């Protein structure tokens, strides 16, 4: 048996695929690529495919990962060629490599993600004002943030590695965010940024134009490492 790790993107209209639909699309694609998939045993055998942390519907990404177990070990160049013909551009498979069979699952190893967020807001603010409110939120030890089931108290230094204003043009801002994944006890980047813009002195209306995941990481000895 051989374990293969594939990095892929999820962009364009396909960013609206649910995680279940994405799983089905990849299973069909791997079959079209004629990969020598290894199957589970039992009454209803399934290919041994495992995914990284789910991407929220509507969020695009250039850095998602899938592990699959093969019964044979074709050359990586052959696999890459087969994948290119089996998947659309919006689910393009990039880096592929063999990894040890006993490598930790993506779901257990990956806990940190980075994002690029583009949004507009009204009324207009200066970069100094936005930075002030970012600093205000990040300086708090704890903050209450909304969840699917209501609200929850979070420790800021546990869930946020970095939140920066990268660019500001009139009422459109671009932000970068690095933090703990929701599956690891963190929050979505838009949840935290909405908190930044919820200050009482000057209520602000915001609209998210793009939330794009730029990386997934596992943390080892304080360093972020790509899986």
Describe the structure.
This protein is of the alpha+beta class and 227 residues long. The protein folds into 2 domains: 2-105, Alpha-Beta Plaits (2-Layer Sandwich); 112-225, Alpha-Beta Plaits, CATH 3.30.70. Helix content is 23%, strand content 40%. The protein starts with a strand and ends with a strand.
What attributes characterize this protein structure?
Alpha-Beta Plaits, elongated, 227 residues, single chain, two-stranded antiparallel sheet, 2 domains, alpha+beta, 11 strands, 9-stranded mixed sheet
Rg measurement, Å: 20 Å
- Low-confidence segments, ≥5 residues, pLDDT <50? none
What is the total tally of β strands? 11
Q: What is the fold named in CATH at topology level of the largest domain? A: Alpha-Beta Plaits
Please count the helical segments: 6
Distance between the termini: 20 Å
Q: Characterize the overall form.
A: elongated
Q: Proportion of β residues?
A: 35-45%
Can you identify the CATH class of the largest domain?
A: Alpha Beta
Amount of helix: 10-25%
Number of domains: 2
The chain-level mean pLDDT equals 93
CATH architecture of the largest domain: 2-Layer Sandwich
What is the helix/strand order? Answer: EHEEHEHEHEEHEEHEE
């Amino acid at each position: 048996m051989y374990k293969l790790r594939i990095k892929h993107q999820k962009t364009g209209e396909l960013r609206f695929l649910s995680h279940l639909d994405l799983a089905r699309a990849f299973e069909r694609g791997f079959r079209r690529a004629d990969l020598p998939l290894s199957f589970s045993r039992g009454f209803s055998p399934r290919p041994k495919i495992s995914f990284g942390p789910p991407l929220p519907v509507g969020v695009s990404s250039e850095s998602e990962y899938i592990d699959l177990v093969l019964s044979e070990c074709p050359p990586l160049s052959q696999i890459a060629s087969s994948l290119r013909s089996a998947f659309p551009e919006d689910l393009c498979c990039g880096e592929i490599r063999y990894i040890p069979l006993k490598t930790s699952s993506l779901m257990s190893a990956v806990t940190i993600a980075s994002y690029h967020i583009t949004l507009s807001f009204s009324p207009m603010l200066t970069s100094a004002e936005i930075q002030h409110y970012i600093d205000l939120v990040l300086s708090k030890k704890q903050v209450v943030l909304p969840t699917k089931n209501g609200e929850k108290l979070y420790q800021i230094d546990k869930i946020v590695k970095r939140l920066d204003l990268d660019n500001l043009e009139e009422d459109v801002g671009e932000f970068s965010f690095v933090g703990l994944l929701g599956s690891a006890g963190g929050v979505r980047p838009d949840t935290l940024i909405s908190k930044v813009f919820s200050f009482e002195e000057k209520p602000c209306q915001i609209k998210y134009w793009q939330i794009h995941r730029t990386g997934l990481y596992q943390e080892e000895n304080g360093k972020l490492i790509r899986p």
